[in-house]
Design goal:
By secondary structure, the chain is mainly β. It has one helix and 38 strands. It folds into three domains: about 290 residues, Distorted Sandwich (Beta-galactosidase, Chain A, domain 5); about 80 residues, Carboxypeptidase-like, regulatory domain (Immunoglobulin-like, Sandwich); about 170 residues, Galactose-binding domain-like (Jelly Rolls). A hairpin with a 2-residue loop joins strand 25 and strand 26.
Length: about 575
Amino acid sequence: MSKHPQSRRRFLARAGAAGIALGGAAAGAGGGLSGAQAATPAGGTASGMFGYTDDGREYTVRTGADLVFRVSRSTGDLTSLVYRGTEYQGYNGQNSQVESGLGQSTVSIAQHGGTILVSVAHGTLRHYYAARQGENNVYLWTDKADDSITVTRYIVRVPPGLFPNDNPDSWDSTQDVLIEAQDVRRRPDGTTRSKHYSNQRVIDYRYVGWSKPGVGLWMVRSNHEKASGGPFYRSLMRHSYENGAGLYEILYYGENQTEPKRFGLQGPYVLAFTDGGAPSSELWHERVDTSWVDGLGLEGWVGDSGRGAVAGVGISGRDPSLAYTVGFANADAQYWAAAAPGTGAYAARRMLPGDYTWTVYQGELAVRTGTVTVRPGSTTALHTITLTPSDDPGRAPAIWRIGRWDGTPAGFRNAGLVTHAHPSDVRAEPWTGDFTVGRSTDADFPAYQWRDVNDGRKVTFDLTAEQAAAPRTLNIGITTAFLNARPRIRLNDWTSPVLPPSPEPSTRSLTVGSYRGNNHTYAFTVPASALRPGTNTLTVTVVSGSSGSRFLSPGFAYDCVELLT
């Protein structure tokens, strides 16, 4: 791509590669075109003029390309979003907005050369919209300074009928039956839909949206440094139904959340229009040029010169069948980097200065931690991290093992369905079924277990006389639990004590597409007197002091079950 600014802007304005379905004057009164009137013709229409107008009620911003948008002077809501003559904003009388609307706010506008910035102040919160000359993009930032204002998201509300309504996170309330809370529905064919079922971890996607011939509408996510939950967290991304659709940038999402809330400026995240393809890779958070933001005066903004990086030589001792990720986190920020399959090398860039805990994830299972300091304007090098057998529970000698230690229920029955469908979905295989070591496969073992659905999982296995002559450790690893659920075991005639619950999120998880909580291993010491030469039967039950019914009864997600030598 050309590095000349004019060429770059022209490219961004018309980005449309093949993609997926996933210091200026203050505003004056009056309706005249304010600021520079640099023309970037777009079919000779008024949208080709770059600048803004103020009618006393709304600011109208023309990007100099094919996009014109309006912002309320009283609330800071985005009230109109017109691309090539079509309105893409609003449903049910609602605007696009922070949370569900901030209400009365102080809103101002200014032009800084080729950038128009709209600033919104509401109590301690600040929100910003920016337009760049010649681009079909709206850049956004949200600065949540504290908990005095409830802010979890920015939502772009899109009128109905503009894009297909046929994804797992889409529904039709005129025919789909509500089956859980106010957000999970079953279609007449027995399949299930919910806004929770976008089926993407944060690490998996850079943008989300919709496209059809001639137009694509996308939310290009920020780096989520001020969000919470880490690289494998799942949250709302979009929804659509017969009355409208929504694109989200999640600032903090409390469902199955594993971390405290972080505060500060989050962004830029970018609302991007294309000719139907994916948004330009030059808008991705790790590549976007933000040098033009440095002079805008955004509260909390830290440009590249004030940031640092971490580069790791590699990770040795890895399981070659699993992906590895290195996460960095402190109370103020979070980042992550994928380890190269060959060497395990990794690099995290554009990090805020500070002291961080780094964590090596095997799959999604934390196996090693340490600390590192990030300094502005420099890269901190980390020597090779050598994983030892004690770091990886999968290296422990086992008589038998069901699943593998990767922090996920991958490979178990229905594990491939539950991140984008309800467990009651007609496509789910039966949640019941016993397991015989040596004959059954991991796919025969249900990924989830609930007290009111499939309690009493049985595992049958054989032991030699020598194996049955000594005490053994039986481990059950879970990835998350609902309602303080945890496993208790009965092995032949011996029943284990009830172990205390691990700290887990208190919200729904297993029914809203999320299996990840605080991975925990329950270790049971089985006396030799409980074991038999020949056939043994293990029964796993759910214990909890809480109650619920069916798929909202106490339950947990499996990571691995093993009997050690």
